[in-house]
Design brief:
With 226 residues, this protein is an alpha/beta fold. The chain is built from nine helices and seven strands; from the N terminus they run αββαβααβααββααβα. The structure holds adenosine-5'-diphosphate (ADP) and magnesium ion (MG).
């Protein structure tokens, strides 16, 4: 049997300027930063659609429930990979691509880089396999820019404890797990430094949001209004 190449799986990478994502370990401040960015954009009459992973469609939200529930501690890491990819495939094809084709802006709270970091570097699944399945699920859709908000795992743990937040199945992974994941994100940034931007997350939220805003303004050609 002939070998299947990546090119046969995906005809071409699809990049839309209006599509960006946020990445980082849990409690790094992704949701906080996305909300601050949405506020800034709304002053400029830009109202992106926000999607979260896993989730964002009826099917994907059901899969999210299975993935995050602490009832399923027996879950095999390969099952976990396929469930994330199944949720993503549905979100990409049902929602994200149709919105981008209409010219809407879309912001993703996590996208396939999380699978590379969590299931690849975190769980230790073969990185090449993860890359191929990521490509297959997304049909080559790639964020135009990704903001990786970087904080140390012990700092994330402190934030979690001060919030008294109940941990989901993935969050229960422990410090070692999150150290591998963080390394994974940093590796991605080395491979794709222009798309995957490392943002120092151990600073006041306003300062971080200012840095993100400067980048967004220049890429989306947003003019400051007085
Ligand atoms: N820059 C920051 N400095 C200190 N605490 C922060 C900062 N950004 C967010 N937080 C707090 O950390 C917690 C996790 O933030 P959140 O935005 O929900 O992270 P994520 O979406 O990455 O899990 C929240 O309690 C939030 O208020
Ligand atoms: Mg969040």
């Amino acid at each position: 049997m002939a070998k299947l190449t990546l090119n046969q799986l995906v005809n071409e990478m699809k990049i839309y300027k209006n599509f960006i994502s946020f990445e980082g370990i849990d409690f790094s401040g992704k949701t906080t930063q996305i909300q601050m960015l949405l506020n800034r954009l709304s002053y400029h009459q830009i109202k992106p659609v926000l999607v979260r992973e896993p989730g964002g469609t009826t099917i994907s939200e059901k899969i999210r429930h299975i993935l995050l529930s602490t009832d399923y501690s027996e879950m095999n890491e390969r099952t976990e990979l396929f469930l994330y990819e199944a949720a993503r495939a549905q979100l990409v094809h049902q929602k994200i691509i149709p919105l981008l084709e209409k010219g809407e802006y879309v912001i993703a709270d996590r996208f396939y880089d999380s699978t590379t970091a969590y299931q690849g570097y975190g769980r230790g699944l073969d990185l090449k396999v993860v890359e191929v399945i990521n490509l297959f699920a997304t049909a080559g859709l790639q964020p135009y820019l990704t903001f990786f908000i970087d904080i140390a795992p012990d700092q994330a743990e402190e934030r979690q404890q001060s919030n008294r937040h109940e941990k989901d199945r993935l969050e229960k992974g422990g410090l070692d797990f999150f150290t591998h994941i963080r390394r994974g994100f940093l590796e991605i940034s080395k491979r794709e430094p222009e798309r995957f931007l490392v943002i120092q997350g151990d600073r006041p939220a306003l300062e971080i949001s200012e840095e993100i805003w400067i980048t967004i303004k220049s890429h989306w050609k947003i003019k400051d209004t007085q």
